[in-house]
Write a structure and sequence with these properties.
The chain has 448 residues and is an alpha+beta fold. 30% of the residues lie in helices and 19% in strands. The relative contact order is 0.10.
Amino acid sequence: RPDCLSIRGIARELSAILRLSFKDNVISIQKEEDAGPSIEIKDTNLCPRYASRIIYGVQIKPSPERISKRLESHGIRPANNIVDVTNYVLLEMGHPLHAFDLNKLAEKRIVVKTAGSADKFITLDNEKRILSKDMLLIWDAEKPIAIAGVMGGLNSEVTSSTVNILLESAYFKPAFIRRTSKTVNISSEASYRFERGADINNVVSALNRAAQLITEIAGGKITKITDNYPVPFSIHRISVSLKKINDILGINIEPSDIQEMLTAIGIENKIEGQGIIATPPGFRQDIQRDIDVIEEIARLYGYSKIPSTLPKTETQPLSLSQNIRWNLIKKIKDSMRKSGYSEVINYSFLNPSDLDRLKLFKEDTRRELIKIKNPLKKEEEALRTTLIPALLNNVRLNISHGEKSLRFFEISSIFLHSGQDLPIEPLKMAAIYLKDKKGLMWQDKHDG
């Protein structure tokens, strides 16, 4: 859960579980001077919100101990007071931030757009990254200065000579960040949170908190905020039946208690008829269905308070024909084991090229494969029409481990085209026997 990747989120959870009041930070920007920076978002689908402030006249120096020690305790190496504040707020509020050296930005403005023709970029760790044209970048008027949501660039790094900074706080689509992070092979504190879903409503709060801390420990004058928010957060209301809540949990919880629990974790709610309308906040985008709301109620109520009961199930006895079939399969398996064979159970997938190795005729029905839309491996993209290839692979594996005498069998279903929506699944048996032609050493004859 992304909301639990911060001190603030953990505190909110504990306050709800322990039934204590939650006290949030008071964020106050005392004085704002001049207009904020220019921000242009060219791909609002990937970046629905981008906010920024400029802070003029900062003094770069080591962070005070209260910040550096806390960063070190979380495994983050302190750099300087500006960078440390962005990391501190990330840990405190769960929202990634980034600081650019304003004097290194062409025309001192921000453009959010895809890489296009830019194919290489050097990140803060001094590594050259290969870019794809649809990868979202943060640009100034001329060049890319950061891989959005993943890592900043060396060409806009805050150093000891930095005087003016541009502070960034934004929201990026999780799926895009996940794809970009894997493509450029970077897993940063920022990407880890963005790809799980940051809080779009927390963008300005995190930015103001960082600006507040920076002016406290580095001085400087803060400009007004520029908040480019072309795609507002869509409120998602979920209707949950009170009866369904109690039926699933097996207990009776008063509606007033349900409302209190949901309010404690930031979920706005109201009783409407025989149900409750729940509105999850921006930091709980994982709550999408009524069952998700019920799960929240269950854990806050306490799983230990819910009595354990056995589920009611209805079992149907096997028919006579099913019983005969089952007993026959059992007898065959027992007979094969007594004959020294080991039963194997293989996956029901097949590599189409295996059928060529078996030299099947082109008109053989076993060549009419049923392809899988999303196979786990490209080499196993079809349902098996024969058991033989898997058994041969079992033999190959055992031979590679030094085994020379093998006896395997398998009784499983195969999948053949039926001309209907679903395939025919006949039960088949296959066995394989391998014996080392060379005798054991103590059986070899020796002269003398």
